[in-house]
Amino acid sequence: MQLASTSSKDENIENMLARVEEALSSSSSSSSGDKPLKLAEEEKKIVDIVVLPEMWNCPYGNEFFAPFAEDVVLDRGSSVAEEEGRGSTSPSFDAMRKIAKEKKVVLFGGSIPTRKDGKLFNTCFVFDSDGALIATHHKMHLFDVDIPDGITFFESKTLTAGDAVTIANTKDFGKFGVGICFDMRFPEYARACALEGCIGMIYPGAFNTVTGPLHWALLQRCRAVDNQMFVATCSPARVEGASYQAHGDSSVYGPFGEKLNDKELEEKPGVVYADLDLNEVVKRRSAMPLNKQRRLSETYELCAKKEENV
Predict the structure, then answer these.
(1) For the chain, what is the mean pLDDT?
(2) Is the full-model pTM beyond 0.85?
(3) Chain center to CA of 37
(4) Residues 90-105 pLDDT 10s
(5) What DSSP letter does each residue of 39-101 carry, written as one string?
(6) What is d(CA 136, CA 129) in angstroms, rounded to the nearest whole number?
(7) What is the C-alpha to C-alpha distance for residues 129 and 273, in angstroms, rounded to an integer?
(8) In a domain, 301, yes or no
(9) Catalytic residue, candidates 103, 139, 193, 198
(10) In the annotation, is 139 catalytic?
């Protein structure tokens, strides 16, 4: 779901909820011809996966992260405020949990700025189809770049990096690795998830108009082909006049590197759909058993040998 963010958190939350409602009302059409999906059995239920963009509840920029940050205090899988019926200090979190539970979807909640122990994080929450929080990912690799004649941005001026690989184990589909934007540039991260049995990687990300045209699609295909898994990315839509311009082009790739989108969004707000045949992961990994052919990790390590004077 490629969403456009404004400087109002309330508006962004309302927009997210409305767009999810619209997307699910259209999800009965498959991406391969707008024909209704058929249930194999009457009692079998189709459960959708919904992915939101990076920093969907605020504009992307260091000046916005602190004012929009939420203190998410968890108790029995929900915010304490929601459990007790008080005014919520984490309205974005509560809205995501509520829509996942009500619509029975697996929701990869893009990312929002969060605050913990006086530190700010770029955080993705993942909710299962019963509304339970099943994963929390703090962006591990912060976007610190200085590209001549391109873009200069340092997330580390305001944000703190996470320190853990995150895997969401969903009831209906199995395991997905979770990364945020710059995390996608590090193949070791996706490989670690694949080795733990993940069938896909989900990357909400706000690549920019400098690196996006060259690297956005390339990195997605690389992670998909390297690990024979699905890779889905979700970008914010581009907002005219914003200080940071997102590349857009939210996409889904299959385990053979094939693009699965039903359409191209480019930089505009909207939704792309993709049907995931989970058997494709087994098929590709069986036909080309890279994991079995992979040597032990130490085989690939380069050991520096100190030269001795003769």
Answers:
(1) 89
(2) yes
(3) 25
(4) 999 999 999 999 999 9
(5) PSSTT-----EEEPPTTTTS-SSHHHHHHH-B---EETTEEHHHHHTPPPS-HHHHHHHHHHH
(6) 16
(7) 18
(8) no
(9) 139
(10) yes
Is residue 149 within 8 Å of residue 190, measured between CB atoms? no
For residues 187 and 220, is the Cβ–Cβ distance under 8 A?
no
CB-count burial class (<10 Å; 0-12, 13-18, 19+) for 169: middle
Note if 54 is an active site residue.
yes
The alpha-helical segments, DSSP class H, found in the chain are 9-25, 62-68, 80-84, 91-103, 187-195, 217-227, 279-287, 290-293
131 within a domain of the structure (yes/no): yes
Residue 246's domain spans which residues? 9-36+45-285
The total number of structural domains that make up the chain: 1
Structural domain includes residue 216:
yes
Return phi, psi of residue 28, to 5°.
Answer: -75, -10
**Confidence band (pLDDT; 50, 70, 90) for 28?**
low
**Token reading at 120:** 């700010």
CATH of the domain at 17: 3.60.110.10
Residue 128 lies in a domain: yes
Is 181 a residue of the active site? yes
Residue 1 structure tokens: 């779901």
Q: Which residues of 90-123 are buried (b: 16+ CB within 10 A; e: fewer)?
A: bbbbbbbbebbbebbbbbbbbbbbbbeeeebbbb
Q: Among 9, 54, 70, 155, which one carries the catalytic annotation? A: 54
221-240 pLDDT, tens digit per residue, is 999 999 999 999 999 999 99
Q: Which of 181, 193, 198, 222 is catalytic?
A: 181
For the record, the structure tokens of 238 come out as 């581009």
